[in-house]
Amino acid sequence: MRKSGRRAFFAQLFALIVVGATGGGKIAYGGATSPLLDAEKLKYELRVLTPAQGAYVDDVVDKVKKGQLPIKILSAAYQYAMRREVGRRPLYFKICIEQLAKKAGLKLSFLSF
Questions:
Q1: What is the sign of the dihedral through the CA atoms of 20, 76, 39 and 106?
Q2: Phi, psi angles (nearest 5°) of residue 105
Q3: Per-residue three-class SS string for the chain
Q4: How many other C-beta atoms can be found within 10 angstroms of the C-beta atom of residue 46?
Q5: Closest of 31, 112, 113, 45 to residue 77, by C-alpha
Q6: What does pTM read for this prediction?
């Protein structure tokens, strides 16, 4: 992704956090849904390499869309993983999601990779 695209993405992410969530698990930002809820874009940004890692990201996005997992946890895990080494981003994303969900008291089971 080009730098200008990354800047635009983070600007939209910031707007998402400021605006907050609306009903039905949809996140309002500029009249569309959150870019974090697009599993394919998320997989690309995290540099997912295996089908198991892709299935994990799909599972997390599905839980957010169903309202079982707060978007704030997804956003925080994404931001944390993006600051890490490119080849290990999916692992850091997984660890962060599971630790934040546990800390929030959510009893969710996630796919493993």
A1: negative
A2: 80, 15
A3: CCHHHHHHHHHHHHHHHHHCECHHHCECECCECCHHHCHHHHHHHHCCCCHHHHHHHHHHHHHHHCCCCCHHHHHHHHHHHHCCCHHHHHHHHHHHHHHHHHHCCCCCCCCCC
A4: 24
A5: 45
A6: 0.68
Q: Where are the domains of the chain?
A: 3-103
pLDDT averages per 10-residue partition of the chain, 113 residues: 62 56 41 73 93 94 92 94 92 94 89 79
Could you tell me how far CA 41 lies from the centroid of its own chain?
Answer: 10
Paired tokens of 100? 């934040």
Pair of tokens at residue 21: 């969530």
Which of 39, 32, 38, 40 is CA-nearest to residue 15?
Answer: 32
Query: Which residue's entry shows tokens 């599905």?
Result: 62
Task: Return all residues near 63 (Cβ < 8 A) that are at least 6 apart.
Answer: 69, 108, 110
